[in-house]
Specification:
Largest sheet: 5 strands, parallel
Distance between the termini: 62 Å
Bound molecules: FE3-S4 cluster
Order of helices and strands: HHEEHEHEEHHEEHHEHEHEHEHEHEEHEH
Strand content: 5-15%
Mean pLDDT: 95
Strand order of the largest sheet: 13-12-11-14-15
Helix content: 25-40%
Shape: globular
Low-confidence stretches: none
Length: 395
C-alpha cells in the first residue's frame, strides 16, 4: 500500500504513540482489503459510546489513549443524557461509568454531539469521504446524501479521527456502489399511503433478504425521513450500508448508474404489501419509544402536533440529539406538557431505560429488530400516530 510522507511520519511515531498505533490499525485494515492508499476523511463518527456496549474493557482502552483528533469527530448516542440523568430511571453506577467514558472521548477532542443523525448538524456533500460507524448513519450518508463511508468499527473510526485518514476500499470506490439485488413491491399503489413506520417495516423485510448486498428499490417514492427509517431497519435486519431507490436517491441519477441499472441483470425479489402489514400488531404495550434513529425537525413537528393537548398514560420516551432543542423550544414544551420524556443524546437500545420493560411500542423498524435481543423487551410496531394514541390510552 502506498503511504504518503504524513502517513509514514505517523507510522514512525513522530506524532506520538497513540497515533502510531492508530496508523498501524489503518494500514493493517488497508492491507486486508487490498487498499492502494489511505485517503483523507472529512468527518468521523465514533461508535462504542455507551458503557452498556463497551463495558470496563472498552472504558480502560479509551482512557489509555492520548492525542487529539484532526478532523471534526462526533460520538454515537450514549446510554443516558449527560445532564439531568437523575430524573430518569438510570442506575447511578452505570451513570458514573458512562460519564467517565464520555469524558475520555472528550479529552481526545471528540465533540459530544452524541447522535445517530450527525448529518443534521454538519454539512455532508455528495462524494465526501467519511469514516462513520453507526449503521443507520452510515447507510443514510451513503444512500441519501451520496457521501462515501464504510461501516467502521469503533477502533477504526477512532483511528481515522486521530489521523484524518481511512483506507480506500469498499464503498469509497464508485464501482463498488452499484446495486446487487433489486426489490419490487407487489402493490406500489398501496405503498403511496405508507408512513415512516411502514418504510421501517419494508427495511426489516428487505434487509433480511439483502444481507450485505446493495439493494435497488423501484416503484416507491419515500421522502428523507422514510429513507432514514428504511435504511436504519435494513442495516439492523441485514448489514446493508448502501441502498438506492430509483429516481429518488442521488446516485441513481448519474449516467454511470443509470446505464448499469437499465442494462445489467441482477437478482430480483418481490415484496408483498401483506408482509409489511403483518409486522404491525395489537399487543398491549407497557411503554412507547420513538426517535430511532434520532428525530428530525419534521418528525419533531409531527410528534408535537400529535401530542398537543393530550396526556400520556404510560412511559413515553422521545429520543433526539441535544442539538435539536435549539430553536425548537416551543415544540419541546408541547411534547413535555403531555408527560412524554425527551431523552437527549441517548440510544434507546443501548440505554438501561428500555431494559426489560415488557412490551415497548415503537414506530422504528430498527428498534423493533433490536429491542428483543438488546433489551429483553417485546416490540410492537405502530405508526407515529398509533404510538401517540396508544401511549395516551386511546384505542
Ligand atoms: Fe440511533 Fe440507537 Fe436507534 S443509535 S438508530 S437510537 S438503535
Amino acid at each position: 500500500m502506498e503511504l504518503d510522507t504524513y502517513d509514514k511520519a505517523v507510522l514512525n511515531g513522530e506524532y506520538g504513540e497513540t497515533k502510531q498505533k492508530m496508523m498501524e490499525v489503518l494500514v493493517s485494515l488497508g492491507k486486508i482489503y487490498d487498499a492502494e492508499r489511505l485517503i483523507e476523511v472529512k468527518s468521523v463518527q465514533v461508535s462504542g459510546a455507551s458503557y452498556k456496549t463497551v463495558g470496563e474493557e472498552g472504558l480502560s482502552w479509551v482512557n489509555s489513549l492520548s492525542g487529539k483528533v484532526v478532523v471534526p469527530s462526533f460520538l454515537n448516542p450514549i446510554g443516558m443524557p449527560r445532564l439531568d440523568w437523575e430524573s430518569l430511571d438510570i442506575p447511578s453506577d452505570f451513570a458514573k461509568k458512562q460519564l467517565e467514558l464520555t469524558s475520555a472521548y472528550a479529552k481526545l477532542g471528540i465533540k459530544l454531539t452524541c447522535t445517530c443523525t450527525p448529518y443534521y448538524y454538519q454539512i455532508v456533500e455528495r462524494g465526501d469521504h467519511l469514516a462513520w460507524s453507526e449503521s443507520s448513519a452510515v447507510v443514510y450518508a451513503n444512500s441519501v446524501l451520496g457521501a462515501r463511508t464504510n461501516r467502521e468499527g469503533g477502533p477504526s473510526a477512532l483511528a481515522s479521527a486521530l489521523t484524518g485518514k481511512t483506507p480506500e476500499y469498499g464503498l469509497h470506490i464508485v464501482k463498488n456502489r452499484l446495486p446487487q439485488i433489486e426489490f419490487h413491491i407487489d402493490n406500489p399503489e398501496a405503498a403511496k399511503s405508507w408512513t415512516n413506520a411502514h418504510y421501517g417495516a419494508l427495511g426489516i423485510v428487505a434487509g433480511a433478504i439483502a444481507g450485505n448486498k446493495i439493494p435497488l428499490f423501484t416503484g416507491i417514492r419515500p421522502n428523507r425521513d422514510m429513507l432514514k427509517s428504511m435504511g436504519a431497519a435494513m442495516a439492523a435486519s441485514g448489514a446493508v450500508a448502501l441502498f438506492h431507490v430509483n429516481e429518488i436517491t442521488p446516485e441513481t441519477r448519474f449516467p454511470f448508474f443509470k446505464k448499469h441499472i437499465e442494462e445489467d441483470k441482477r437478482e430480483t425479489v418481490i415484496i408483498e404489501v401483506a408482509e409489511i402489514d403483518e409486522l404491525f400488531s395489537e399487543l398491549e404495550p407497557d411503554a412507547v419509544a420513538v426517535g430511532c434513529p434520532h428525530l428530525s425537525k419534521e418528525e419533531l413537528e409531527s410528534l408535537a402536533s400529535l401530542l398537543d393537548g393530550r396526556k400520556v398514560v404510560m412511559p413515553f420516551y422521545v429520543f433526539a440529539a441535544e442539538e435539536l432543542k435549539r430553536g425548537n423550544e416551543a415544540l419541546y414544551s408541547k411534547i413535555l406538557k403531555s408527560g412524554a420524556k425527551i431523552v437527549p443524546d441517548t440510544c434507546m437500545v443501548v440505554s438501561p431505560l428500555a431494559d426489560h420493560k415488557g412490551c415497548i411500542m415503537t414506530n422504528s423498524g430498527k428498534a423493533f429488530t433490536y429491542l428483543p435481543s438488546m433489551c429483553g423487551s417485546i416490540p410492537r410496531l405502530g405508526t407515529l400516530e398509533e404510538c401517540v394514541k396508544v401511549g395516551c390510552g386511546e384505542k
